[in-house]
Amino acid sequence: MRLHIFILILCSFYGTSAQSISANSGWNANVSSSEISDAGLDYNGTYQSSQTETYVTASGFNIFRNYYVYVEKSELDWNSNLILSARRTGNGSGGWFGSISGGTNYIPLSNSSQLFYYGGIGFSNSRSNVPIQYQIEGLSVLLPAKTYTISVIYTVSD
Q1: b vs e for 106-144, b when ≥16 Cβ sit within 10 Å of the residue's Cβ?
Q2: Which of 120, 14, 13 has the alpha carbon at shortest distance from 62?
Q3: For residue 110, how many C-alpha atoms fall within 13 Å in the half-sphere facing its CB?
Q4: How do residues 120-135 score in pLDDT, each as one tens digit?
Q5: In the chain, which ranges are E strands?
Q6: Kindly report the CA angle at 158 between 22 and 130, in degrees rounded to 5?
Q7: Residue 92: which of 69, 64, 65 has the closest Cα?
C-alpha cells in the first residue's frame, strides 16, 4: 500500500496597485507501508516537508506600504481525515526597515482564505523568498491507498 500526496501551489492577488505574488514548487509526499514496523500499528501521525519546501515572493508595492499574505486550500482529490498545515520558517529578504510578522506556527489550512503573515515593505517594493514548510496529519492504514491532491493558494494585498 502506498499513499501519494501532491500539493500544488497557486497564487493570486488583490489590491489597488500592481502587486503580484509567486511561489515555487509543491510537495510530493510518498508514504510507504514499510513505515509501519509491527502488525496492528498505524503510520506515524505527522509528516513534514523540508523547511524550505516553497518560497513565496510578494512584489509590486510602493515603499513603506503594508502587505498581507493570505493562504487557503482547494481540495482536488482529498480525504477529509487529512489535515494540511503550513508555517513560515524564515523572513526571506526585503528592503531596509521592512518587516515580517506572523505565520511561524503551523496553521491548519481551510477552504477559506486566512491571514498567514504580514509586514511592512520598507525601502523596497517586495518581500522575497519567504520559506514555507508543510505538515500533514491524519494518515492512517484505514485510508484507501491512492494519490491525494490538494492546492495551496497564496493571495497578497496591501
Answers
A1: bbebeeeeeebbbbbbbebbbbeebbbbbbbbebeeebe
A2: 120
A3: 7
A4: 988 888 899 999 999 9
A5: 2-13, 20-23, 27-32, 46-48, 54-59, 66-77, 83-88, 93-96, 107-108, 114-120, 123-137, 147-157
A6: 35
A7: 69
The DSSP call for residue 16 is S
Residue 16: predicted pLDDT: 46
Amino acid at 141: V
Residue 82: closest CA among 2, 11, 150: 150
Residue 19 CA to residue 60 CA, distance in Å, equals 4
Give the three cell numbers for residue 56: 513565496
The pLDDT, as a whole number, for residue 47 is: 84
Q: Per-residue pLDDT for 15 more than 80?
A: no
Residue with cell 489550512: 109
The number of residues making up the chain comes to: 158
Backbone phi, then psi, for 36, in 5-degree steps? -95, 115
User: 147-157 and 2-13: which strand pairing?
Assistant: parallel
User: Under a CB-based contact definition with an 8 Å cutoff, are residues 4 and 146 in contact?
Assistant: yes
Which residue is listed with cell 489590491? 15
Place of cell 506600504: 65
